[in-house]
Design goal:
binds iron/sulfur cluster, 23% strand, alpha+beta, Alpha-Beta Plaits, two-stranded antiparallel sheet
């Protein structure tokens, strides 16, 4: 099962907005308890100004993931649980 984990080269926990799926509603920005998401000044191919993670401060709580109305637009990366004895 652990072999299925995705390896990323940035600090965890973290979130990522899949820019082409974002509709710019702002719900993730409004509800993130850490206030670490903001709108960029760029527009995606659908013409929406999209949200992005600031790059630090995410706790991996998942609030943004659950409040986003666009399926797949937000990915939250959490730290893998360490195995007992490690
Ligand atoms: S997982 Fe939680 S802390 Fe991290 S960006 Fe989403 S709402 Fe904010
Ligand atoms: S909640 Fe989803 S659709 Fe709305 S701004 Fe955030 S990423 Fe974009």
């Amino acid at each position: 099962m652990l072999d299925d984990l995705v390896e990323v080269d940035f600090p965890l926990p973290a979130m990522e907005v899949v820019t082409y799926l974002c509709k710019g509603c702002g719900l993730c920005i409004e509800h993130c308890p850490q206030k670490v998401i903001a709108f960029t000044d760029k527009f995606n191919d659908m013409g929406y100004k999209y949200a992005a993670y600031s790059g630090e401060g995410c706790t991996g709580c998942g609030v943004c993931f659950y409040c986003c109305p666009e399926p797949g637009a937000i990915v939250v990366y959490k730290k893998a649980k360490e195995k007992k004895g490690e």
